[in-house]
């Protein structure tokens, strides 16, 4: 049964990559909205979880506002998929016109310093499009990490797709990723990490919208170990096909404290930058899973 389902899921993604790529852009966008609205109306687990997460981000929202936000959130999430399926076929010239990044100079200055650059961002808008903007517009290759998806053939598709956009992709599992990332940074390279959720034992506890969540220690540890510049980034959608973003100021390594204390302070600073972007554009935060620790305790 597992293999049959794996083949089905992989087939659907294959169709997405092949089919959506060929659709005219307005047709792909309309299809995405239709799928999003259908899924939203069913009010399955992922939609209810998104709504519950949004209730923390917008605590004064009543039921009507929350439903409207979660519908907009599902449309934003499907826009991410439709755009991502189309990205490999897009003219790289468009990355410079479709994406506008506020305080882009901070990134250029960090790259020019030769110290290596870590960009950490949350699940906002389209991080793959932001990656394509880095490789296609800024003209800098970078390394990232991807979760090993099941089935394996689906993971291979993801890797091939991201590599076609100029990214080096390392598997999340196996433990070798950290060492490779550190080497890339020491050579003055750039890495990008989606860093707003880590439920493993190594996750760092942060205050996030007034409650405790866990985020990965990797960005802060890599900055301490290699001397690289750590930059938070946040994104949000405009009217299609526009996407906007902001490069936030460097999260510096504190001058005092143990490694654990420095890591905690830096990860909290990342969480605060992420929260500022999410609060401004909650409908573009694609967090359809449990994040806060008291939500996890509830499940247990």
Would you write up a description of this structure?
With about 300 residues, the chain is of the alpha/beta class. It has helices spanning about 1-20, 25-40, 45-55, 65-85, 95-100, 105-115, 125-140, 150-165, 175-185, 220-225, 260-280, 295-300, and strands at about 100, 115-120, 140-145, 165-170, 190-195, 205-210, 210-215, 230-235, 245. The strands form three sheets. The protein has a five-stranded mixed beta sheet, with helices on both faces.
The helix-and-strand class reads: alpha/beta
Instruction: Determine the mean pLDDT.
Output: 91
Series of secondary-structure elements, N-terminal to C-terminal: HHHHHEHEHEHEHEEEHEEHH
For the terminal residues, how far apart are their CA atoms?
Answer: 28 Å
Low-confidence stretches: none
* Shape category: globular
Main β-sheet description:
5 strands, mixed
Give me the number of helical elements: 12
Number of separate strands: 9
Proportion of residues in extended strands: 15-25%
Q: What share of residues is helical? A: 55-70%
Radius of gyration: 19 Å
Strand order of the largest sheet: 1-9-8-2-5
């Amino acid at each position: 049964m597992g293999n049959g389902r794996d083949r089905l899921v992989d087939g659907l993604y294959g169709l997405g990559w092949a089919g959506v790529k060929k659709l005219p852009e307005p047709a792909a966008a309309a299809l995405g909205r239709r799928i999003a609205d259908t899924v939203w109306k069913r009010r399955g687990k992922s939609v209810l979880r998104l709504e519950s997460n949004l209730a923390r981000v917008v605590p004064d929202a009543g039921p009507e506002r929350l439903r409207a936000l979660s519908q907009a959130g599902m449309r934003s999430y499907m826009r991410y998929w439709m755009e991502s399926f189309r990205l490999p076929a897009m003219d790289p010239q468009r990355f410079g016109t479709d994406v506008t990044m506020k305080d882009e100079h901070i990134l250029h200055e960090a790259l020019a310093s030769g110290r290596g650059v870590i960009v950490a961002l949350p699940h906002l808008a389209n991080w793959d499009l932001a990656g394509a903007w880095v490789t296609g517009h800024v003209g800098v290759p970078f390394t990232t990490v991807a979760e090993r998806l099941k089935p394996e053939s689906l993971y291979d598709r993801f890797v091939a797709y991201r590599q076609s956009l100029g990214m080096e992709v390392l598997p999340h599992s196996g433990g070798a990723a950290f060492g490779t990332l550190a080497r890339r940074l020491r050579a003055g390279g750039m890495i990008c990490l989606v860093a707003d959720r880590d439920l493993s034992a190594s996750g760092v506890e942060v205050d996030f919208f007034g409650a405790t969540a866990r985020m990965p220690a990797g960005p802060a540890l890599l900055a301490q170990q290699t001397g690289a510049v750590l930059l938070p980034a946040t994104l949000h959608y405009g009217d299609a096909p526009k996407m906007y973003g902001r490069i936030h100021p460097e999260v510096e390594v504190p001058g005092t404290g143990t490694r654990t204390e420095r890591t905690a302070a830096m990860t909290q600073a990342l969480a605060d930058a992420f929260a500022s972007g999410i609060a401004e554009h909650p409908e573009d935060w694609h967090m359809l899973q449990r994040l806060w620790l008291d939500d996890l305790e509830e499940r247990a």
